[in-house]
Amino acid sequence: MVATIGVISAYPEEDWDARRIRDAAARRGEAVVLAPTDFAAHIRGRETVITAGRRDTRDFDLFLTPRALGDEGDAEVQLELYRTLAEHGARVVNEVHALTVAIDKFKSSWRFAQAGLPTPPVVLVQRLEDARRALDELGEVVCKPLYGSLGVGVERLSRRDAPRLKQLMARHRALYLQAFVGEAERDVRAFVVGDRVEAAIARRPQPGEFRGNLELGASAEALDLDETAAGVAVAATRAVGLDYSGVDLLLLRDGVQLLEVNGTPSFRGIHRIVGRDMAEAIVEHALEKAA
Questions:
Q1: Mapping DSSP to helix (H, G, I), strand (E, B) and coil, where does residue 142 land?
Q2: Alpha-carbon torsion 16, 63, 190, 76, what sign?
Q3: How far apart are the first and last CA of the chain?
Q4: Cα separation of 250 and 237, whole Å?
Q5: Measured between alpha carbons, how far is 66 from 264 in angstroms, rounded to an integer?
Q6: CB atoms inside a 10 Å sphere around CB 74
Q7: In order of start, what are the domains of the chain with their CATH numbers?
Q8: 190 within 8 A of 178, measured Cβ to Cβ
């Protein structure tokens, strides 16, 4: 029987990763591209039917969520519709609850700590005096937006940068301060699908830059992770409940440090550097899970 796969993307043509996932899904069944605004709910008596593009979602075998939110419609409504889909037995990869945990840096850091994973100390504060105290205690930190990606808004601060905290607190209203990890040998992005690392790259920031994001001009090369680092990447993905993820690690002389996990990771850079299409692995894993 041919599988019917809904690929949810707010930007189906502009988003490279969503297009690759759509194409991989089409090679294995009927791929239906759905915008977040295509979803609606119909409540009649005790029966609730969620539709997608005017089709009953029960007709779908699987939903993939490369870009489940966009600029149109109501994001909270869309998230609730996806959650209800999962509650009614639909297979959703990645599942929305896991995505909301992954995008929340505080919650994901808490999950890492609860799982016993090696991750830097973090302080989350809402008052300027607490931020100053944390910076003094940690000495050097990476200040990140609680919800963000691609390195946007990320700053490295030392004790001499304490005056900067006032501006950051006024802008963000809460500050996530992660202890800076120095002397790292490798800055790594590992791409996890299911219970394995499918590919990994070592990134080198541009001179004068500490962020290793490829979008900020970092260079990279393919990397074979050892068993310990790969195990941390897979465990981090499980800790937040994701089926696939991009995991940021620092490899040190005496171990590994887990920085964060991305639930909607771009794999364009990995495709270019490693030569493998992560969309194939994502769809294959999702179909196995649906079966």
A1: strand
A2: positive
A3: 12
A4: 16
A5: 6
A6: 12
A7: 3-93 (3.40.50.20), 101-117+183-276 (3.30.470.20), 122-179 (3.30.1490.20)
A8: no
Q: Is the peptide bond before 94 cis (omega within 30 degrees of 0)?
A: yes
Alpha-carbon gap, residue 270 to 20, rounded angstroms: 13
Instruction: Give me the DSSP letters along 88-103.
Output: TT--EES-HHHHHHHH
- What is the token pair recorded at 156? 């490295």
Structure tokens at 224: 């074979």
**Integer-rounded Cα radius of gyration of the chain:** 20
Q: What is the mean pLDDT of each run of 10 residues along the chain (291 residues)?
A: 90 92 95 96 91 93 94 94 92 94 95 97 96 95 81 84 94 94 87 97 77 70 95 98 96 94 94 95 94 82
Q: Write down the pTM of the prediction.
A: 0.91
Token pair, residue 174, equals 């809460």
